[in-house]
Amino acid sequence: MTPVTNCLPERKALPPAQRDTGPDICIRKCRRKIWIEAIAPSPGDDQNLDKVPDLFVGGDEMQDMPHRQIELRITGALSTKRKAFEKYRGEGIIDENDSCIVAVSACQFSLEAAGEGLSHAVRAVYPFGDEFIGINRRTLDAVRFAHSYSSHIERAAKKGDPILRTAFQDQRFENIAGLIWSRLSIGNFLGQADDLVFVHNQVARKPVPRKWVRWYEEFYAIDGGRKLRKKKRGRRG
User: 128 lies in a domain?
Assistant: First the structure.
């Protein structure tokens, strides 16, 4: 992998107002550039009915894991950065042959985003709903783990106006090559290991290669988009 560089060699000569214009990170790869816009969404303010709930609040009461709220934070961040990339393209900073990636950090609600199962990042951009288990009626053994189909994420704040969880099957997001997701806390006080997840956009105009970085988990569509495959570091499959 080529090192992260400043793709605008004249940036040092620019006035401060223009020097910080453009995406956060640029990586040169052969003749094109890979641009990355990073964002660390907040859990939401107290008036937001879809705020990611604080798991430390509530005493001994049992709380559901806030998958829906976290997925809404991801879709909101993705839409924000899609608009930013469109602006940079209009300004001539990003070329037609360049690739764009959005990186989302859950550092402000890392505890709530912890846990096993299908990554929040995947469920935010592909139509995976709740997980269910198939049981053999004769032996009562679990024989299958799968997810229901769900094209929308419901919103408590705007009932009847859900958010699509199909961004990476939507041509409006074709200029986004993929999504980087991390649940590392600020200062890594939870002691998590490297957890970078990369989700490829099925409809990307300028996709990035698989295994471009040694991701902890990598997801990409196969079989004409009918299946999603996961590659996990150190494993085959």
Answer: yes
Answer yes or no: is 237 within a domain.
no
Query: In this structure, is residue 9 part of a structural domain?
Result: yes
Residue 6, both tokens: 């400043």
pLDDT digits (tens, 9 = 90+) for 86-104: 999 999 999 999 999 999 9
Q: What is the mean pLDDT of residues 103-131?
A: 90
Q: Which two tokens stand for residue 78?
A: 């993705």
In contact, 98 and 35? CB cutoff 8 Å: yes
Question: What type of residue is 226?
Answer: R
For residue 82, what are the domain limits?
A: 4-55+64-232
How buried is residue 174: exposed, middle or buried, by Cβ count under 10 Å (0-12/13-18/19+)? middle
To 5 degrees, how large is the angle CA 149–CA 80–CA 181?
A: 60
3-state secondary structure of 132: strand
Q: State the CB neighbour count (10 A cutoff) for residue 129.
A: 15
Q: Give CA–CA dist 94/88, Å, rounded.
A: 6
3-state secondary structure of 198: strand
Which backbone phi and psi does 187 adopt, to 5 degrees? 75, 0
pTM summary value: 0.84
What's the structural domain count of the chain? 1
User: What b/e sequence results for 58-92 when a residue is b if at least 16 CB atoms lie within 10 Å of its CB, and e otherwise?
Assistant: eeeeeeeebbbbbbbbbbbbbeebbebbeebbeee
